[in-house]
Specification:
Elements lengths: L18 E10 L3 H13 L7 E7 L4 H7 L5 H9 L3 E6 L13 H8 L4 E7 L9 E7 L9 E6 L2 E6 L5 H23 L10 E6 L7 H15 L1 H4 L3 E6 H10 L6 E4 L1 H11 L12 E3 L4 E3 L18 H14 L2 H15 L15 H10 L2
Parallel strand pairs: 1-2, 1-3, 3-12, 5-10, 8-9, 8-10
Antiparallel strand pairs: 4-5, 4-11, 6-7, 11-12
Helix pairs in contact: 1-10, 1-12, 5-6, 8-9, 10-11, 11-12
Pathway: Amino-acid biosynthesis; L-lysine biosynthesis via AAA pathway; L-alpha-aminoadipate from 2-oxoglutarate: step 4/5
Cofactor: Mg(2+)
GO biological process, one term: isocitrate metabolic process
Length: 373
Amino acid sequence: MLSASRSCIKRGYATGTAKTLKIGLIPGDGIGREVIPAGRQVLEALPSEYNLKFEFVDLLAGFELFKKTGTALPEETVQALQGSCDGALFGAVSSPTTKVAGYSSPIVALRKKMGLYANVRPVKSVDGIGRPVDMVIVRENTEDLYIKEERIFEKDGQKVAEAIKRITERATTNIGKMALDIALQRQKVRELGGASLHSVPSLTVTHKSNVLSVSDGLFRETIRNLYDANLEKYGSVEYKEQIVDSMVYRMFREPEIFDVVVAPNLYGDILSDGAAALVGSLGVVPSANVGDNFAIGEPCHGSAPDIEGRGISNPIATIRSTALMLEFMGYAEPAAKIYAAVDANLGEDTIKTPDLGGKSTTQEVVDDILKRF
């Protein structure tokens, strides 16, 4: 739990008349269509004490939509999110491994259009499952190699492919501040009695500036300068750096030492998916795409075509992403209720989907979590 760290919508939750929040639902492809309903069910089942009601807007995006219409991210979807939604849930998108003319990832485009410059991925173990781990990976969401500026040409009779890696001071400052703020907020939760592996907050800046001295060098230097210039605010956070290859090694050897990790887009993508192996499955790892004015919850597992339509998709990543979305909207207490119900489910061996060694269906897991409200 982040305890609404860096809440992007400063509302708090209603204490009198029920507050109605409009949530965009974008199932996307594959099992996204099976797990996004779980997020809706959880929101609808929140206890009345939180004085929250929800309206839902069904929106379209994805590779399957592109194959049908030639558009992966309709302008109507963007306009609905920008115009009337308070937050959103995004399910999954199928990504072809070979180039498809005219197609680009709708979630990448959506992050740019909505100004969602951070991808925040908490990875926390539950007693008895996987390795002891309690970290948040904060991934810069808008640049690096993911700007998709590529070209192919011939040289000496051979094809050569090039891709631009872009790191800017502005984007790096934004992501560095986000990560440092999360480190501070996590420490506040610990001081209030929240369980954690960590006694002091820390930030680990991940880079490869020993090789990429210009691009990764700028990333590293910008966050270091941000930290040094704001010691009055961030001085309680232990500042660390880790070259990305040794970061991978240490993350699997001693994951318990990492608190908040910040990384450029590509490294953050790899680290966050790899970290899921420490806690049993990608099916339990949430994320949120966050900017200054909006948050989209997004499970980390992808479209999983091998299990699509079988009713065995793990809904926990989506349910946790729903809670994470609420946190960044400023509603920490109902988010905590959801986290506690999920942890209670995971702490038992009875109702689990096959990715966690169980035999339960998606809906059976959802129903078990809802019972714990």
